[in-house]
Design a protein that fits this description.
Elements lengths: L3 E4 L9 H16 L3 E6 L9 H14 L5 E5 L4 H14 L2 E4 L3 H13 L28 E4 L6 E6 L3 E6 L7 E3 L7 H11 L4 E5 L6 H10 L6 E5 L2 E2 L17 H5 L3 H9 L13 H7 L10 E2 L2 H14 L2 H14 L10 H8 L6 H8 L10 H7 L4 H12 L6 H15 L3 H13 L7 H8 L1 H9 L3
Parallel strand pairs: 1-2, 2-3, 9-10, 11-12
Antiparallel strand pairs: 4-5, 5-8, 6-7
Helix pairs in contact: 1-9, 5-6, 8-10, 11-12, 11-13, 15-16, 15-19, 16-18, 17-18
The structure holds glutamic acid.
């Protein structure tokens, strides 16, 4: 069997974390088996679907690198096919016209509710052997209903939730086409999964109630059933369904905040799936390991600290060149001056250990690209009668010292000894004069990166 999986988002908003995770699982499953991953845009809800949302989904998938092998297919472009199958089902007797008006159906439901029964379509127009159907009302366009089996059960072995069985009498006859002939949501999903020969449907468990209906329609069509796996929702740390209150839920907010796609992928992979205690792994490893046996039955909780920790890990791993490409535009916006300034990649190499996002990295790197403006009170405190002569001495010696970290470090120590000072007594004013602030990476590294000319210019200005 060739594995064929799909991600089938409705373009009614951004690509959210839950959607991205089911996309990732479907993608990885196809990759694991050398199968095919299909992208399908379920855009039949004309009121809620927008081209911007389609764009946002495509962007999110592309940022994550979840490449599809087929598609994107758009359901709105497949209307003829759905109508064709509706006609075939009408002809085969697995679907029928129902002329009950919406008001009549509502009245039916009211009566059932009042009698303490489950509200459902009562089968007025359902053909049965020997049954005489009511006279067709004039000027009324019918809906098409699926003729759900009256007896027996529908059952499937959900790869996440185990066996689920629903009695057919619990389900009424689903409307599959509206009076204007447009197919309904569940019907389009079924025809697509069938036509696209989907072997594994991995999706959020908000769809678990649709599955028995979808299976019955597939069976009526004589289709081979896919395997279904319904993944539990993602919850916030407070146990509530993940929402904006818990931070960003749109995938594309994360690059904007300075997250790397590999951190997001690694994080999502562990939300509801595990491989022993492995926390940090590449997508190559994930695709090699991913199976449906280790999907969790219980909802995963979103933990932004863990995502930040993974992002820090991947920032440390990332090429400085790549990071420079990400931070430079942000720094330019922040007024960074790159002329006669330290090499950005070297600065990134120095700063990346300690940041959780590339936005933090851009902020931290600004230290080297803005004109320092030490506050007067800090100058008064740190540039005093003890440090000033030592710094003057130091500046003089800087003219000729070899501009390498070790030599610079030795020079600083020599000055400390000569002037009987402790490290902070020189390091603090040096930091202040060179960068305008007291917190910087190691002073030797800072001095080396700035280079002789900048260091001398900034020191002599105040000495
Ligand atoms: N379009 C549905 C959604 O976005 C998914 C349907 C499916 O996966 O079967 O929730």
């Amino acid at each position: 069997m060739i594995v064929r999986t799909r991600f089938a988002p409705s373009p009614t908003g951004y690509l959210h974390l839950g959607g991205a995770r089911t996309a990732l699982f479907s993608w990885a499953y196809a990759r694991h088996f050398g199968g095919t991953f299909i992208l399908r845009i379920e855009d039949t809800d004309l009121e809620r679907s927008t081209p911007e949302a389609v764009e946002a989904i495509l962007q999110g998938m592309s940022w994550l690198g979840l490449s599809h092998d087929e598609g994107p297919f758009y359901q709105m472009q497949r209307m003829d096919r759905y109508r064709e199958v509706v006609a075939q089902m009408l002809a085969a007797g697995t679907a029928y016209h129902c002329y009950s008006s919406p008001e009549e159906v509502e009245a039916m439901r009211e009566r059932q509710r009042a009698a303490g029964e489950k509200p459902r379509y009562d089968g007025t127009w359902r053909p049965e052997a020997g049954k005489i159907l009511p006279a067709i009302p004039a000027d009324r366009k019918p809906v098409v209903r699926f003729r759900n089996p009256a007896d027996g059960d529908v059952s499937w072995d959900d790869v996440v939730k185990g066996t689920i069985t629903i009695a057919n009498r619990e389900m009424d006859d689903l409307v599959i086409a509206r009076p204007d002939g447009t197919p309904t949501y569940n019907f389009c999903v079924v025809i697509d999964d069938w036509d696209m020969q989907i072997t594994h449907v991995i999706r959020g468990d908000d769809h678990v109630n649709n599955t028995p209906r979808q299976i019955n329609i597939l069976k009526a069509l004589g289709a081979t059933l896919p395997l279904y796996g319904h993944v539990p929702m993602i919850l916030g740390a407070d146990g509530e369904k993940l929402s904006k209150r818990h931070g960003a839920v749109s995938v594309m907010d994360y690059p904007a905040q300075g997250y790397l796609p590999e951190a997001m992928l690694n994080y999502l992979a562990r939300l509801g799936w595990s491989h022993g205690d492995d926390e940090v792994f590449s997508m190559e490893q994930f695709c090699a390991w991913f199976d449906l046996d280790h999907l969790s039955k219980s909802p995963a909780q979103f933990n932004p600290e863990k995502l930040a920790w993974l992002n820090n890990h991947y920032i440390k791993q990332a090429d400085n060149d790549r990071l420079a490409g990400l931070v430079k535009p942000l720094m330019e916006k922040d007024g960074a001056n790159f002329t006669n300034a330290p090499d950005l990649q070297a600065v990134i190499g120095l700063m990346k250990e300690r940041v959780n996002t590339t936005n933090e990295l851009a902020d931290a790197a600004m230290l080297f690209y803005r004109t320092p403006n030490p506050a007067a009170d800090l100058l008064a405190q740190h540039l005093n009668e003890l440090s000033r002569p030592a710094l003057q001495d130091y500046a003089a010696r800087c003219q000729a010292v070899e501009w390498k970290k070790d030599a610079l470090s030795a020079l600083l120590k020599e000055m400390l000894a000569a002037h009987k000072l402790k490290m902070p007594q020189m390091a603090m004013p040096l930091r202040l004069l060179l960068t305008g602030q007291l917190q910087t990476p190691s002073i030797d590294a800072v001095i080396e990166l700035f280079g002789r000319d900048t260091v001398l210019a900034r020191l002599t200005k105040y000495l």
